[in-house]
Batch of 3 targets.
Target 1
Amino acid sequence: MLINAEALDHRALNDRIREAEEPCQITHCRGQRFIAAGMGEKKIGIDGIPGNALGAYLNGATVTVNGNAQDAVGDTMNDGEIVVHGSIGDAAGYAMRGGRILVKGNAGYRAGIHMKEYREKVPVIVIGGRAGSFLGEYQAGGKIIVLGLDGGPIVGDFPCTGMHGGKVLLRSDCTNISFPAQVSAKTADDADLAEILPYVSEFCALFGYETEQIMRGPFTVVTPDSNNPYHQMYVSN
Amino acid sequence: MMKKEGQIRIPSGCAIAAVISKEGERMSGRPIMDAMRPMHDRSNGLGGGFAAYGIYPEYKDFYALHFFFNERATRKSCEQFLKERFEIVKSEIMPTRKIPAITDEPIIWRYFVSPLRSVLASLQLDEKEFVARTVIKINTEMEGAFVFSCGKNMGAFKAVGFPEDVGAFYKLEEYAGYAWTAHGRYPTNTPGWWGGAHPFTLLDLSVVHNGEISSYDANRRFIEMFGYQCNLQTDTEVITYIMDYLLRIQGLTPEEAAHVIAAPFWSTIEKRPADERERLTYLRTVFSGLLVTGPFSIVVGFEGGLMALNDRLKLRSMVVGEKDDKVYIASEEAAIRVMEPNVTKIYAPAGGEPVIIKVKEGRF
């Protein structure tokens, strides 16, 4: 079903998506915020530019954007999948707690800020291009994978600042990247690579890359140094 | 009576957009007004405004003073004050259209003026300094009179309302400029009133701003030492005076000014090549009181150009797009796509990395 978003504000647009029983394709999208917020069990395609907080609190729906997306994609999403065939703005996956975000192009600043995980709920972000500064800021869980497929510096300044859980995997030897003292960056081992293989395979299937070639790496894995890397930094805890 | 800026604090985003033609081609106000529509929800109707460059070619040698007056008597006494200092070549009510969305407008007046040579000679001031001082004096001392624009061949247009309505109110589709900036306001600390809407201007300089400056008072104390008066207790005003001080008084380039207000961290400066390190250290040390901290994305307009800049941590969004000789800037990509659906290059500048666009020499 086609939904022309030209004359719809974010509320009316989301009402139309909720009413739609079959998969829907939004056309002429122009910055409407909160598209698919909180939705489960839906397939939504978007032509045009979705507004901020696309798929906020997403709860199982699949959202595919055929271009770029703006800030805060998948804010606090719980389940489902957001696939972006272009690039995304700042703060993607903010406080994300489940599901997947796969981006063909680049991500802005602060991708995966405050991401978390609990038991089987492990959120994953895969970025095909480069990530901006403060990647994985205050990350508490989940996985962030950056592939650097278009060349250029794979990540901006200050990656993993305040990280205290989860993993960041960068397809680079990271020789020119400085990480904070509270995290450790190592060459990924076989177990790390096995862990990301399903997500990289999905990325390659979606965007037309060779999994085998990309998995050759080299990959660097970044994790917090211990269970309590900020011990006594603020208070004795 | 509604309290004004500075009398009350309301803790609470904003939308900015801009377009410039490097060839100096003059564009109507229509595209920039339309660009504000998809960002409607970023503002709350308490302020909207535009700055336009190249709009008064027939009066390009005169300062265009845009005024708000609270009543007729104020305008009369202010006009007397102006006549003692300027030759007024044109005086007219600002053309506006009545629309339901814009109410309670003050008296909006426009003068085209030239400072009297005899006054300049006796004060031993250059023309720009004299105009700046006079405007600051009016805004500080003259109750009920407010100059909201005072540059040559440019003008600010602002009001309480949503930006798209403010543009319609001022009939901006009838103007043609080589550069436009726009703002939709969501006041964070102060109530909305006509003078408090963006852009803030001094001479040909204008600033639209999304964000909130945590260094406001430190910046204010520094800049007021040089004769500026921050009357509106709104953070954007101080950025305008800082930029005027750095560009006009100190003679810095826009790029150098950007490295003062959004100076890189010392840890970042240390990693730069020696000559650059020296330059950045100099700027950060000499003008330490003008470092602007807290989240901001701004577009600074000046004669013949624009500069877009984010705070060094990039706590606000900003996207830049290009097509042929046009450069587009906005808080959201959707706004750029409204102005130019087929934009060829689109990118988000890093925090503290200025994007400076100048019109070709001789084309403005």
Target 2
Amino acid sequence: MRRLNPSLVAGGVIVLLIVVTALVSFVWTPYDATLVDPASRLLKPSWSHWFGTDKFGRDVLSQIMVGSRTTLFVGIVAVGVAAVIGVPLGILAAMSRRWSSEVIMRSNDLLLAFPALLLAIMFGAVFGASTLTAMIAIGIASIPSFARVIRSGALQVMRTEYVLAARAAGRQPFPIAVRHVLPNVASLITVQASVSFAIAVLAEAALSFLGYGTPPPTPSWGRMLQESQEFLFSAPRLAVFPGLAIALAVLGFNLLGDGLRDRFDPKLEDRR
Amino acid sequence: MNSVLAVEDLTVTVRDKTLVQDVSLTVDPGERVGLIGESGSGKSLTALSVMGLLPEDVHASGSVRLAGVDHDLIGADERRLSRVRGRQLAIVFQEPMTALNPTMRVGDQVAEAMLIHDTVPGRRAARAAAIELLGRVQLPDVLRAYPHQLSGGQRQRVVLALALANDPSLLICDEPTTALDVTVQAMVLDLIVRGVTDRSSALLFITHDLAVVATVCQRVLVMYGGRIVESGPVNEVFTSPRHRYTQGLIAASDLESADRRLPTIPGNVPAAGQFPNGCVFRTRCAHATEICATAPPWSGTASRGFACHHPAPALEPADA
């Protein structure tokens, strides 16, 4: 066994922590995250409310716990959309003839040049602001980075002798893509997925902050930040806790991506 | 036409450079033919043209016919080619370390070779056939192994089993033992010869190792600068080479004369597409004269002949 690298461990632990938090929130939270209690509004952190309460008297810890579900949900769907479209597109671009590959990659560049948040805001304006539209928009905006990374990996695989051998054995292009190219770029997909996940989490927070993401009352870390604005001087903790949660989630997924990249680095392959 | 493979006037070009010019060769059923030449002489390109596996920007013209295939392989589309490849025509590449998919079990890869062409009735039969094939290359227990668990020689034997899975009528080996060490080489060569003999398949064996050709092949084609300069039975060509290039090549690999400096062919192989017109060897040939600026005609027959204006004298019985 190879020694695990520190960023892989740290990233894995943070991501696991978020996943566990989200799972626990389904069965238990200290308070109902959406319960409005005017009597206990803007409480400081205490033993009964670890992270305090917001302007409606809702428990901040409970909201952050439930909010982690939104975060994970957003990441999974956005990365799913991006991977399901971007990976085949990248492989197709790598395997097709020069001009059709150019068409795919240049339209990819067009999409890449379009700001993800702007796309999401447009989607929100057209289809109505919801977590789902935000996620799909972020997913679409992440397609180019997937397509690009997978294409470069697939180009490498296409140049290997086992692909030449598969062609020499009479394999058609589609089975070659599924049996030979896809499994050999799987590590790239994993790395790109964790990096895109971090971007999606951040984008959802930004969208919710702007009011185009998760609509109330579903707790979302981004919207918690937005609601804390008016108390930034009187109760800065309301911004600190969701802010920390977002930072931690992004850090966790980025570290995981870095760690996976190191692990799958072809230059280190011999040591496996 | 009763030969397994008939290549006529094969010319391979990339943009404006000609890499292989007017190569014609035939391989008879069950015959073992060697194709020798230095790096850059066009051996591998000839093999890839036959397989239809040239890179996108490299173009082949001429004619490649295979027995049992009713169309020319040059210019055939991928779909038609893929029905021939791996079925009537198989190839073993040089580098065994990369010739197998690292994410698939060895047994599955061998079984797949047969399932592609439906030469076995189903998965179970393919698996049984894979066990048998791997057994015949003396690898009985590797079915569930991944390629990285095998050595280079073992992998090359798996590749050989893969290539022979559908009893092809012609097996092309592109320097199959160059990447292996000498003891493993002998074993793999033995398995190749046995494999093609058992199936009465023909063999086109590409190498730059004259000793290997001498042990494996019956007939030899010598390539230089993208052309075939001499051909004939192995013992005749090696004992009495007629083309000056063949003569130099054989002299340079003569290991019996330990008391003198190893003879070499002066100069280097010109870069691809930079070969002189006329005789391609004339810039390095000690016997070259003005007439060598015109392309030398083929002397002799298709099975024993050479293309040289100033051939070395025949030693043994005259050209057959």
Target 3
Amino acid sequence: MRITTVLSAVLLALGPAAAPAAADSSPSPSASDGSSAPTSAGTSFRTATEIEQGQQATASGSTGDYLYWSFPADAGQRPTVKATVKLPDTHAGQTWQIDVYDGLRRRQACQYGAQTRTAAQGTAAVDLACTLRTVRAWSEPWADDPLPGTYYIRLTVLNLTTADLGQPVHASVRADSKDIGGSAAVDGSLAKPLVPGIAVASKSEEGDGGSSKAAVLSSIEPTDGWASGWWSDRWVWTAIGGVLAALAGVGGYALTRGSGRPSRVPPGA
Amino acid sequence: MCALLAALASGIAFPAAATAGEPTGEATAKVDLVLDVSGSMRTRDIDGGTRMAAAKQAFNEVLDATPAEVQLGIRTLGANYPGNDRQTGCKDTAQLYPVSALDRTGAKTAVATLSPTGWTPIGPALLKAAGDLRGGEGSKRIVLITDGEDTCAPLDPCEVAREIAARGIGMTIDTLGLVPDTKLNKQLSCIAEATGGTYTSVEHTGELTDKVNQLVDRAADPVVTPVATEGTAQCTDAPALKSGLYTDREESGQQRFYRVDVKPGQELRSSVSVAADRAVNPDYGVLLRAVTTQGREIVRGEATGNGRTDVISTGLRYPKAESDSDDAPPEGVPPAETVCLQVTNSFSAASGVKTTPGLPLELTVDVVSSPSHSGDVASFGLGRGWWLLGVLVLVGFLAGLIWGWLSRWRVAVWRTN
């Protein structure tokens, strides 16, 4: 009886300590609307402008351009990409589209959001959005699930009249993500995030002590680094489950013993 | 636990891949501004001044803003021959300022001397401009500023652009049109698309300055220069690639093979983009397969598309498991597996469009340390949610109950004995 009392006391003390961590385990991306937001866009995967999540990147381009940005997304995040294109004063009907590609340049499906939208003649702006699937820490090589790493955004017009070619447009994009948390925590992890050129980059880092402005395909990294992949709120759930089970066990045990000391036992025995 | 170990290991183990495609330090960006000085530049329709005046003003501002790391040159077309002889007029292109470290005053003086004169030989000017930019490792950009379409017909500037792109690595042509005209739009955007550049129609001096500045700045951004390679029709004689970025050309219906060595415990990551640098039919696709030397497919990446596009791309991952200790050779260096990467595309050129040179193909190869494989669907096999708590509480309660009864029964049995 002594032992179970002590045990339950310890578990009770541990319980509340573990509980607050359950609220939100992984850090959500910090929205940093800094002044350093990029004001240009790349024109290919190779030249894509790197942006942070939560940054409002802008770019001026021409109708018909293919504008590229890239942003990092980590396991457990469900990124949403939003784009607004300000169109010239006069134009015919145009269809705009955003596509999101992962670090292997595989097109990623949008769960929802207006990925493609047609701007009627003379419309001032068009808004696009794309919500990706939740980024998993690991998936089989034969699947095309979103994995941690670089994500490319491509913004372009799909159909336009020849007269509209080359007209100035102004685009702004922003990538945010919702933290899905432990429900998306899968087992396994990538040894390196899906960042293109990472094999070359780490090699040169090793070699010549980081020679200042060497170009890399993608030098992207979340502000607080890539998640190591071992933490999820599943630890907390499971631990609390263990504590509750132990308490329930103590309760069940106590039920069978009745209440108080047996009447036969004399006091002070 | 496996994942944790893998995470730790990844910090230490760097891939032993070599460094093809690694940029060299002294790559300087080169930009050649190609300015149309044909007779039509005299027309007064940009902000009340002539097109020439607008171009000159824009050039002055651009020269002031050019970053120091960019080598800038200026080439003119139609600046010298005022006559009517088409033969001579169509050869009229000259280097006004050589592509070199910029002397701002010298360049400005040279620009000031220009006056609108002759024909519009865009094709020949582009060829010469490509020659101006020859050599060096950095990115190369031609910025073509013109107010009229090419007047030297049989040589299609679009095809010239395509050939330039096929010849030089990382050469981009951006075009700026000074007149909102459908035919000019078409030709200039065709030139731009042939090299992955952009086309902008300009109607104000300010726009012109901003755009040229933007393009020069874009050239100054360091980018990885791809390494030219040539894939083969079979895997046996395919070029062996290490981690890096490569380009090649592939005609529709061709297949290209490349070989990559992957050691046990490494992961091959590869992606391929095939660019549509000419008018293509609206349905297309690309297939990247990793096959063994015996021809068995390991994994594939495929993509199809429809409609207007610049590239179609796909990728694959192939983690090679650590070899079992039993069959590892005694010297301790497990042999690398040769993986053949096969690229095919299903682009079809629109009718009347030449199919050679092939479409530009960009291939990235990364060989990194391999991930742990997953032992469970959930992270470390841990549970989550109210059902889990409910089950645990129930089982705990029942276990307590049974334990209690058992011990009562045991005590009772002991007492009676």
